[in-house]
Inverse folding.
């Protein structure tokens, strides 16, 4: 019994909390200095073979999921659980105790006290003070004895639960994180325009992950500010199940697509030296072709030939395209087109609508995290718990009303578990209010 | 009259405030107190208008974004929050001595923002990753936390000075040290300021995590900035718990407030420049 109790005390101790938090803080620094999750060669190049092997052995290159780091988190969790179980009964006792049972002698010894007298009877005073306190938000309970009337009131007794909510919230976050990592995945895919995929590629393992549906990139657009900085990446995505489109959404950075618990995020892109052309006639006939620079393409049914003969680009991003367009009605037309835009080409009696854009692949980050809402719940509880623990306090006041000869003595006493200075001010104001009230009787 | 003029004026104003509060402290000139407070408050108003003007100017340029997204703007806001918070503490705890230990930090921040040639001062548009409503929530909450921790460090320094050169000392220092508030009072204010900072930092980390999840697909990726903000959080969690352990006197708490501040500075500034990661937006 004795040994388990000292083990219990160890896990309930503040000292263990200080040690664990300190260790977590110090070891976390390591992972910010030594790059994480890099290829083996990176470490050999940076630190030499000997040190690199040492790092791999201790899992320093992957330290936040290493056995020793997770053990520290495990110790912290045990500490949180045991210290809360250990101290909660006392807090609960304070919350639920019958404060009317406190003896007048003990009441007189409380931190704050003020005394008054009145010619009225104890019952009358008790009644009027009860109303007065009620008006000020102090709900009172009363006990009437042979010798005295005792009034008691308290505020925010539930604030004592705050610290336990804080501790619980951290455990909830851990549970959410564990659930998310077991039941979820993270990966990416570079999806070229017009193509679709039913799988994505995780960061860790080699095997691909089946999405359970198909995602297709219908279009990718890149916008720049005048100074050349990227302004927006936008992908038009279609989700298909069994060949039918079930969802379409334009995604941008900070605005992902969610479907069946999986979220697709706009992360990056890759430009190709390839183009997508759309060409349509007034009668509704249209084609989509992909092709390269300076290669001729044809629309045989319409007897049209076209191609790109020149272009302007900033590094890998094409900004303007020069088109060569020909059909049997006359000599070829040549015109400049801003990449991604449309132009009308009139040849004889037919007007075509033509567009050309550089082909891109959209870089999507794909994640499934069933635990994320548990983590958010933990966050919410954390803020609530901190507020209760630090901005609320359990305040108690007693009024002892006794008769002596033909005068009644009233003693106001009070105590708080936090914010002594604030309560001192409040108590003083309450005493003055009561004094003023009694004088009017 | 544009925002850079107003912010430049603010820098000099805070220098003057620093001088005022230092004079009040060292030369025991309490009558200067009211003037110092009003002058600093006026400087804060000028700075607020400057920041607002910068926001408006960004709309004039067709960019339209809150002035909180690069190092220059964040340092300006950091100084603003320190002064705003300090004036509130001065009002609540009725002590102007604290000013000598906190207003200089705000001035130094403004001076750094103005004078360092490597910082871009122009209003540049936002890259896609920063185009989110979470930006304001995350940046503002983190900086309120940072400002509170900076003030706590100033108070910690006050404590250590008072403790070391306290009333038992007999040399000329005695006079200045005696005008510092009692150790218990400094300790109490430090505690309250740290609690305030801790809650705001917590909300700052949480808003960052929620934003990261909607932008990058995960609420936590042990990115150096995230990790250091957590390390800072640990330091203050340790400090708040240390009070419940016997033997952890006010001196240790004072040292922890300074250690925490070093962690804050590394989280804010060191990470951007010394370590790589997703958070490199703040580096220029």
């Amino acid at each position: 019994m004795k040994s388990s109790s000292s083990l219990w005390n160890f896990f309930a101790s503040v000292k263990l909390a200080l040690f664990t938090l300190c260790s977590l803080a110090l070891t976390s620094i390591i992972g910010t200095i030594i790059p994480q999750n890099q290829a083996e060669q990176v470490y050999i190049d940076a630190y030499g073979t000997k040190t690199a092997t040492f790092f791999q052995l201790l899992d320093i290159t992957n330290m936040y999921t290493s056995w020793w780091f997770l053990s520290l988190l495990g110790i912290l969790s045990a500490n949180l659980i045991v210290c809360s179980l250990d101290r909660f009964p006392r807090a609960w006792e304070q919350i639920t105790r019958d404060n009317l049972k406190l003896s007048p002698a003990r009441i007189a010894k409380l931190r704050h006290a003020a005394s008054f007298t009145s010619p009225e009877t104890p019952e009358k005073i008790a009644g009027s003070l009860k109303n007065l306190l009620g008006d000020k938000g102090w709900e009172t309970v009363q006990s009437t004895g042979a010798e005295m009337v005792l009034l008691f009131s308290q505020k925010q007794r539930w604030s004592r639960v705050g610290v336990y909510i804080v501790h619980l919230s951290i455990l909830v976050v851990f549970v959410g994180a564990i659930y998310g990592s077991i039941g979820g995945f993270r990966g990416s895919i570079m999806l070229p325009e017009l193509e679709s995929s039913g799988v994505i590629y995780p960061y860790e393992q080699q095997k691909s992950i089946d999405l359970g549906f198909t995602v297709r990139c219908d279009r990718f657009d890149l916008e720049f500010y005048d100074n050349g900085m990227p302004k927006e990446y936008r992908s038009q995505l279609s989700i298909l199940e069994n060949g039918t489109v079930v969802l379409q959404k334009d995604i941008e950075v900070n605005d992902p697509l969610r479907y069946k618990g999986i979220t697709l995020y706009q992360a990056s892109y890759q430009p190709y030296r390839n183009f997508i052309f759309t060409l349509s006639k007034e009668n509704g006939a249209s084609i989509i072709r992909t092709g390269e620079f300076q290669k001729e393409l044809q629309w045989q049914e319409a007897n049209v030939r076209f191609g790109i003969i020149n272009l302007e680009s900033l590094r890998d991003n094409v900004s303007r395209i020069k088109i060569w367009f020909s059909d049997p009605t006359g000599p070829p037309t040549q015109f400049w087109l801003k990449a991604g835009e449309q132009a009308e080409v009139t040849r004889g009696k037919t007007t075509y609508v033509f567009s050309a854009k550089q082909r891109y692949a959209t870089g999507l980050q794909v994640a499934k995290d069933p635990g994320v809402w548990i983590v958010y719940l933990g966050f919410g509880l954390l803020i609530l718990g901190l507020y209760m623990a630090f901005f609320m306090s359990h305040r108690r006041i007693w009024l002892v009303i006794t008769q002596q000869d033909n005068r009644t003595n009233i003693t106001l006493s009070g105590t708080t578990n936090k914010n002594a200075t604030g309560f001192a001010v409040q108590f003083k104001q309450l005493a003055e209010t009561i004094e003023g009230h009694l004088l009017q009787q | 009259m544009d925002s850079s003029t107003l912010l430049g004026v603010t820098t000099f104003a805070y220098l003057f405030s620093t001088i005022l509060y230092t004079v009040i402290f060292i030369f025991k000139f309490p009558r200067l107190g009211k003037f110092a407070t009003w002058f600093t408050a006026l400087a804060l108003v000028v700075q607020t208008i400057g920041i607002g003007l910068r926001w408006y100017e960004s709309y004039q340029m067709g960019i339209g974004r809150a002035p909180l997204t690069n190092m220059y703007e964040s340092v300006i806001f950091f100084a603003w929050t320190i002064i705003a918070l300090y004036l509130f503490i001065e009002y609540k705890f009725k002590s102007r001595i604290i000013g000598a230990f906190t207003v200089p930090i705000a001035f130094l921040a403004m001076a750094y923002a103005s004078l360092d040639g490597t910082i871009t001062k122009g209003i540049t548009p936002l890259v896609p990753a920063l185009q989110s409503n979470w930006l304001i929530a995350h940046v503002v909450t983190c900086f309120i936390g940072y400002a509170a921790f900076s003030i706590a460090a100033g108070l910690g320094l006050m404590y250590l000075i008072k403790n070391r050169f306290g009333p038992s000392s007999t040399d000329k220092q005695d006079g200045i040290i005696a005008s510092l508030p009692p150790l218990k009072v400094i300790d109490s204010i430090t505690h309250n300021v740290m609690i305030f900072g801790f809650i705001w930092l917590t909300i700052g980390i949480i808003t960052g995590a929620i934003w990261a999840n909607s932008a990058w697909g995960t609420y936590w990726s042990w990115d150096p900035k995230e990790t250091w903000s957590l390390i800072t959080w640990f330091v203050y969690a340790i400090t708040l718990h240390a009070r419940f352990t016997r033997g952890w006197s006010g001196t240790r708490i004072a040292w922890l407030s300074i250690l925490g501040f070093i962690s804050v500075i590394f989280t804010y500034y060191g990470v951007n420049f010394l370590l790589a990661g997703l958070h490199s937006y703040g580096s220029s």
Chain A has four domains: 2-90, 97-156+393-439, 163-184+370-384, 185-368. Chain A has a mean pLDDT of 91. The longest helix of chain A spans residues 67-96.
